[in-house]
Design a protein that fits this description.
It catalyses: a 1,2-diacyl-sn-glycerol + ATP = a 1,2-diacyl-sn-glycero-3-phosphate + ADP + H(+). Residues 33-186 form the DAGKc domain. It holds the Pfam family DAGK_cat. Residues 447-456 have a biased composition (Acidic residues). The strands form 3 sheets. Strands 6-7-5-17-14-9-10 form a 7-stranded antiparallel sheet. Helix 3 (75-91) packs across helix 4 (95-103). The protein is of the alpha+beta class and 477 residues long. The chain folds into 2 domains: 2-171, Rossmann fold (3-Layer(aba) Sandwich), CATH 3.40.50; 179-423, Tumour Suppressor Smad4 (Sandwich). It is built from 13 helices and 17 strands. It has helices spanning 9-12, 50-61, 75-91, 95-103, 112-125, 143-147, 159-171, 238-252, 260-269, 280-283, 327-332, 354-358, 431-434; strands at 38-42, 67-69, 105-110, 133-137, 173-189, 206-213, 221-230, 233-237, 284-289, 295-297, 306-310, 346-351, 368-373, 375-380, 387-392, 395-400, 407-422. The radius of gyration is 23 Å and the shape is globular. Strand 6 and strand 7 (221-230) form a beta hairpin. 25% of the residues lie in helices and 25% in strands. The longest helix has 17 residues, at 75-91. The model is unreliable at 1-7, 260-275, 436-451 and 466-477 (pLDDT under 50). The two termini are 42 Å apart.
Length: 477
């Protein structure tokens, strides 16, 4: 049964009636158009028991139909059905549907991986007016919510806490941030011991694209391709290995990892003495593309054991590994601008060892700044190792590598922007906050015959919502 919204004037501002979601339900008279209609997605596995408690409170305050448990309903199916219904109602002259479509905001409660999952789906929708997203910190790192002022500690789950959060959502401002597309292609001889990764072991926002033989049916080589995206960072090496060890242990013994503060400490250091760390330069050749549009090899010092491609000013639970380089160091490393979240540029940095990573905990501590670029390519060296550790936005995985004549290439490129909601405590900086005169640098603005774009087909979207094909409110670009 739907709640009587007339008893709570403030909740009317966020309320969406059931018929918007379910065409067969009767139309409901709403006394006022909501100023800030929201759809809430909650990962009830996140935050120990907090996710379950949070969904109970949201469903008491709002319409049960606008609050979704991600364990029961995937966001791509929810949004597909919602926008189909909104289009039908709008074409029928429903004013409320039009206003909800225009004013809609999304709330996602979970870790950074959960938030990235939703952002990938919104990106693949390619709506003319995509809804902005607010993030509730229910994970371990919580870099996305922290960057935009939503905090990094678990929120309260009582009614007063949720109402306060909803008020912040209503008062927050929209902010564009860059989306980054990643394509990973692995080619190896048929029957090679290097198998593809099982879908449950992949990050939410990384998907198998296809497994195809070469054009000749007799060819013994097979290609495995994955595509996806990130909004905060992609990393490889030591930090991903530490994170993978932590996540693996948490899967085996979830009862030991219910305290968020303890999880954040453990995720920095777990376990640091038994890792057999390898130099990045021994694993892969790294190429970058700057404004010139030319690929160039990035020199990686032999001491670097972890490399991070960073978009937001938060890493590993709210730390800023880029720091503030002096003007002399900026000139020395050809760093063209301060780190911004909407400039089409990634900051690339490295760590020498685990203790180097821990230096971030000290004032003005930072990693080794390597470059700024709007395209990055990792070409893994043959026979260097049989696996590498990687992670995107806090979700690590163990990537098999062929030890024979196979090849693995990972390429990162700019993929447009998404809209986040930011509070007054937002630490992320955009172009307009930093310097209105700076213009955005987009990868597509580069011109060169040396781009070697083997991934054009895979870059068409993130692969998070391939079934979305609308005839209505969609930009066909």
């Amino acid at each position: 049964m739907e709640k009587n919204v007339d008893g709570n004037n403030m909740m009317k501002e966020f309320y969406i009636p059931t018929y918007i979601f379910t065409p067969e339900s009767p139309d409901e008279h709403v006394s006022q158009i909501p100023t800030c209609p929201v759809i809430v997605f909650i990962n009830t596995k996140s935050g120990g028991q907090l996710g379950r408690n949070l969904i109970v409170t949201y469903r008491k305050l709002l319409n049960h139909a606008q609050v979704f448990d991600l364990l029961d309903e995937a966001p791509d199916k929810v949004l597909h059905k919602l926008y189909s219904n909104l289009e039908r109602l709008k074409h029928g002259g429903d004013t409320l549907a039009s206003e909800i479509c225009r004013r809609l905001r999304l709330i996602v409660a979970g870790g950074d991986g959960t938030a990235g999952w939703l952002l990938g789906i919104v990106s693949d929708l390619k709506l003319a007016h995509p809804p902005p997203v607010a993030t509730v910190p229910l994970g371990t790192g919580n870099n996305l919510p922290y960057s935009f002022g939503w905090g990094k500690r678990n929120p309260g789950t009582d009614q007063d806490s949720v109402i306060s959060f909803l008020q912040l959502v209503r008062e927050s401002r929209e902010m564009n941030i860059d989306s980054w597309h990643i394509v990973m292609r692995m080619e190896s001889p048929k029957g090679s011991p290097c198998d593809p990764i099982a879908p449950p072991d992949l990050p939410h926002s990384l998907h198998a694209f296809r497994r195809v033989p070469k054009t000749d049916p007799q060819d013994m080589e097979y290609s495995y391709t994955y595509r996806g995206g990130f909004w905060n960072y992609f990393s490889m090496g030591m930090d991903a290995q530490v994170s993978y060890a932590f996540h693996s242990e948490r899967k085996l013994h979830p009862e030991k990892f219910k305290n968020q503060l303890s999880n954040q400490v453990n995720s920095h250091t777990f376990p640091i003495f038994s890792l057999g760390l390898r130099n990045i330069a021994c694993l892969a050749k790294v190429k970058i593309m700057k404004k010139s549009g030319k690929w160039e090899t990035l020199e990686i010092p032999q001491s670097i054991r972890s490399i991070v491609c960073l978009n937001l000013p938060s890493f590993s639970g709210g730390l800023n590994p880029w720091g503030t380089p002096s003007k002399r160091k900026q000139r020395k490393r050809d760093l063209v601008m301060p780190p911004l979240v909407d400039d089409g540029i990634l900051e690339i940095l490295g760590f020498k060892d685990v203790w180097h990573g821990l230096v971030l905990l000290s004032p003005k501590g930072h990693g080794t700044r390597l470059a700024q670029a709007h395209r990055v390519r990792f070409e893994f060296l043959r026979g260097a190792t049989d696996h590498a550790y990687m992670q995107m936005d806090g979700e690590p995985w163990k990537q098999p590598l062929p030890t024979d004549d196979g090849t693995v290439v990972v390429e990162i490129s700019h993929a447009g922007q998404v809209k986040m909601l930011a509070t007054k405590d937002c630490i992320a900086k955009g172009i307009h906050e930093s310097c209105p005169a700076i213009s955005t640098i987009h990868p597509e603005s580069s011109s060169s015959d040396d781009t070697d774009d083997d991934f054009e087909e895979e870059r068409r979207n993130f692969g998070s919502a391939l079934s979305f094909r609308y005839t209505g409110d969609v930009n066909r670009q």
